[in-house]
């Protein structure tokens, strides 16, 4: 990594200036700068800025001069205040006539320009750094376009670019600040380690440099004193080195209100851990403080408003793995075997450092008790040196992995059912062993990892799963970080046994595991669809015809005695309710769910079918009145009957539509939703009528 740094064309370390001074290094000029292990620049009076001299006709000011080798620009960056509202073209910006990097309204971006015959612009956007040190690096080559790396990992690209006629400032100066007003250049943020290579670094070189850059460990919080800790090949005994981090984790609790900001803070904590040994008590204190910070993260109030929740939590789990693995690796070796274990609201956890010979059982199991666990055969631990084991059983993390698009996973079986979302349906369990255990490459061989997970179905998931018209797919899946972000995959895992209550998986690797569920409705064959459609149309048409004749008959016979006329009134109202319901039912087939007409028809269908049941109840009351209670049965009960027949259904529909209007005509057909319980607004009154 330091060899990559030594090959840079221009390098400004920005670590020796205290206040505003002029100084020169071997490759470039810094005319002004206020530095305190980085540069804080504000928007108020007394503003300071950096001005990097002139680079006329160089690769920096004119990318076409770079040739096929391209160019690389690298720096560490953070904004001073996450809540700052950046003014147009004035927020956190580094610019030359060849490129600019800026942050405006919550979006960071890199723009790259070429002059001459090829008047082109490339632009790539990324999440701005926030108030924590973040490494930004971008490369440009004429054939590959623009690539932006954040913290050593490829983040976004623009390979093609587009024709563009406005190239920023005409000057060839490399500077920080706004695009206008030469005397008023300012940046809201801090910068460190400006480096330019007049060639495009390879991804391997970028990773090597970033590893070396953060190898000189720096505590990444403005509330802490700066402390430089040199990386060594073997951890040095110093448990006190972790105390500032534990203190900072405690002090920062409750100070974050944005998931992105807090995730950036937690990631920077993982980068800032010193490569020094720690005692069992220190490891326990750090674990508890870190998991309490994770608890705060999970408790943030606005998760429903955050897009790409699964992506964010994939990054969070990777950060937790990194911190826990670091602690396990650096546990003191003087008193092996050593175990740090405990429980928190976030997870059950264990950190183990021991010799494989200390395993007297046929399997290592985490957690040792419970119905959800991971089991590793002892024969897989083939190393003679000590091993480290990190185990985590998360209590609530699975709730945040819901509505995952199957096209965003590496599960081929799930992707075959495009459009049917996937959700985690078990606890998330994680285990990491170093050195890696020796496992069978073939899932039919041995040894293999056994994972048993109890399903944690929500009421909606359970109702979908037991619905006979659905097919339930359960996948043994894990978070695959091979491309830099956590993507669900089932490669190297197979579901060996289980039912709707639990699953047993066999896998040939270790990572974070969970059971994912995908519910796919069973589709009728074309023949069945035609048959059911024909029965419906013919049956409803016949019913409508007969009901019409019935109503006409009642109208003709309406001149009979009062007693019989009352019965005819009941029959007529019942027939009318069923007739209108049948007509509305046929009409509803012409509209798609989710449309306004479909929603209106669903409400009307609810009312008229309820009315049909209500008038059947009236019929029962009237027969009871005639046959059992003979005396006094002649008096008219029209008012009561109409109140029951039309009033009660109207009242039920008003309450139902007021409380859950979204449950009408939204899924499959123009009727009440079967998934969220709204259909009980019809089923319950109907059952009551039948019981009476």
From TrEMBL:
What keyword terms does UniProt attach to this protein?
Cell membrane, Disulfide bond, Glycoprotein, Membrane, Receptor, Signal, Transmembrane, Transmembrane helix
The record's section on SMART domains has: GPS (SM00303)
Give yes or no: UniProt keyword Iron-sulfur. no
Q: Where is the Pentraxin (PTX) domain?
A: 45-248
SUPFAM superfamilies named among the record's database cross-references: Concanavalin A-like lectins/glucanases
Report the locations given in the UniProt record: Cell membrane
Q: Which InterPro entries match?
A: ConA-like_dom_sf, GAIN_B, GAIN_dom_sf, GPCR_2-like_7TM, GPCR_2_secretin-like, GPS, PTX_dom
Q: Which GO biological process entries does UniProt record here?
A: adenylate cyclase-activating G protein-coupled receptor signaling pathway; cell surface receptor signaling pathway; regulation of skeletal muscle contraction
- What is the membrane topology noted in the UniProt record heading this document? Multi-pass membrane protein
Pfam families on file:
7tm_2 (PF00002), GPS (PF01825), Laminin_G_3 (PF13385)
Q: Where is the G-protein coupled receptors family 2 profile domain?
A: 532-692
Chief location of this protein within or outside the cell:
membrane
A single Gene Ontology MF term assigned here is: G protein-coupled receptor activity
Occurrences of domain GAIN-B (ranges): 350-523
Q: Which GO terms describe its cellular component?
A: plasma membrane
Segments passing through the bilayer: 535-558, 570-588, 600-618, 639-659, 671-691
Q: What does this protein do?
A: Adhesion G-protein coupled receptor (aGPCR) for androgen hormone 5alpha-dihydrotestosterone (5alpha-DHT), also named 17beta-hydroxy-5alpha-androstan-3-one, the most potent hormone among androgens. Also activated by methenolone drug. Ligand binding causes a conformation change that triggers signaling via guanine nucleotide-binding proteins (G proteins) and modulates the activity of downstream effectors, such as adenylate cyclase. ADGRD1 is coupled to G(s) G proteins and mediates activation of adenylate cyclase activity.
In which family does this protein belong, per the annotation?
Answer: Belongs to the G-protein coupled receptor 2 family. Adhesion G-protein coupled receptor (ADGR) subfamily.
Q: How does it assemble?
A: Heterodimer of 2 chains generated by proteolytic processing; the large extracellular N-terminal fragment and the membrane-bound C-terminal fragment predominantly remain associated and non-covalently linked. Interacts with ESYT1; interaction takes place in absence of cytosolic calcium and inhibits the G protein-coupled receptor activity of ADGRD1.
Q: What is this protein called?
A: Adhesion G-protein coupled receptor D1
């Amino acid at each position: 990594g330091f060899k990559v740094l030594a090959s840079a064309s221009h390098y400004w370390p920005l670590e020796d200036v205290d206040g505003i001074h002029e100084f020169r290094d071997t490759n470039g000029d810094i005319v002004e700068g206020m530095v305190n292990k980085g540069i804080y620049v504000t928007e108020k009076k007394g503003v300071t800025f950096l001005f990097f001299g002139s680079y006329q006709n160089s690769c920096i000011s004119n990318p076409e001069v770079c040739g096929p080798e391209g160019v690389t620009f690298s720096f560490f960056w953070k904004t001073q205040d996450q809540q700052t509202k950046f003014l147009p073209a004035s927020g956190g910006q580094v610019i030359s006539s060849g490129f600019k990097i800026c942050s405006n309204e919550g979006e960071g971006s890199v723009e790259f320009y070429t002059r001459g015959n090829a008047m082109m612009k490339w632009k790539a956007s990324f999440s701005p750094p926030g108030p924590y040190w973040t490494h930004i690096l971008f490369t440009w080559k004429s054939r590959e376009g623009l690539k932006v790396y954040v913290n050593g990992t490829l983040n976004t690209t623009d390979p093609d670019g587009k024709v563009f006629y406005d190239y920023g400032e005409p000057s060839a100066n490399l500077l920080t600040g706004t695009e206008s007003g030469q005397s008023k250049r300012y940046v809201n943020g801090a910068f460190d380690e400006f480096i330019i290579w007049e060639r495009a670094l390879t991804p391997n070189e970028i990773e090597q440099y970033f590893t070396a850059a953060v190898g000189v460990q720096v505590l990444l919080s403005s509330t802490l004193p700066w402390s430089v800790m040199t990386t060594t090949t073997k951890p040095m005994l110093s448990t006190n080195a972790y105390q500032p981090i534990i203190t900072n984790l405690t002090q920062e609790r409750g100070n974050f209100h944005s998931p992105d900001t807090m995730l950036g803070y937690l990631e920077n904590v993982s980068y800032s851990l010193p490569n020094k040994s720690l005692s069992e008590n220190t490891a326990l204190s750090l674990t508890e403080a870190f998991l309490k910070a994770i608890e705060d993260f999970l408790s943030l109030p606005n998760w429903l408003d955050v897009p790409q929740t699964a992506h964010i939590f994939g990054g969070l789990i990777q950060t937790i793995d990194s911190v826990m693995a670091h602690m396990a690796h650096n546990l003191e070796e003087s008193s092996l075997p050593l175990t740090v274990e405990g429980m928190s609201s976030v997870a059950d956890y264990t950190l183990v450092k021991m010799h494989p010979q200390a395993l007297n059982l046929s399997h290592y199991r985490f957690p040792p008790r419970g119905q959800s666990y991971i089991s590793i055969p002892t024969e897989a631990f083939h190393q003679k040196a000590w091993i480290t084991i990190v185990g985590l059983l998360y209590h609530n993390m699975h709730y945040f992995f819901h509505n995952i698009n199957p096209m965003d996973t590496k599960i081929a079986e799930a992707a075959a059912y495009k459009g049917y979302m996937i959700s985690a349906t078990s606890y998330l369990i994680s285990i990491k062993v170093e050195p890696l255990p020796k496992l069978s490459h073939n899932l039919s061989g041995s040894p293999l990892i056994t994972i048993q997970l109890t399903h944690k179905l929500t009421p909606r998931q359970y109702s979908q799963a037991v619905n006979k018209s659905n097919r339930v797919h359960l996948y043994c899946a894990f978070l695959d970080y091979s491309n830099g972000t956590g993507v669900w995959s089932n490669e190297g895992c197979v579901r060996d046994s289980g039912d709707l209550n639990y699953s047993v998986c066999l896998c040939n690797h270790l990572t974070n595991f969970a059971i994912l569920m995908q519910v796919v409705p069973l589709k009728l064959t074309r023949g069945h669809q035609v048959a059911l459609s024909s029965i419906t149309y013919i049956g409803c048409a016949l019913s409508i015809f007969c009901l019409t004749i019935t109503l006409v008959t009642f109208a003709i016979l309406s001149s009979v005695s009062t007693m019989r006329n009352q019965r005819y009134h009941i029959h007529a109202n019942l027939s009318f309710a069923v007739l209108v319901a049948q007509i509305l039912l046929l009409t509803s087939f012409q509209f798609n769910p989710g449309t306004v007409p479909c929603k209106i028809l669903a409400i009307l269908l609810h009312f008229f079918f309820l009315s049909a049941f209500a008038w059947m109840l009236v019929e029962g009351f009237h027969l009871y009145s005639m046959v059992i209670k003979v005396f006094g049965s002649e008096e008219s009960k029209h008012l009561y009957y109409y109140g029951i027949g039309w009033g009660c259904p109207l009242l039920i529909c008003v309450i139902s539509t007021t409380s859950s209007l979204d449950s009408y005509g939204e899924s499959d057909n123009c009727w009440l939703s079967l998934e969220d319980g709204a259909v009980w607004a019809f089923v319950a009154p109907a059952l009551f009528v039948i019981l009476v």
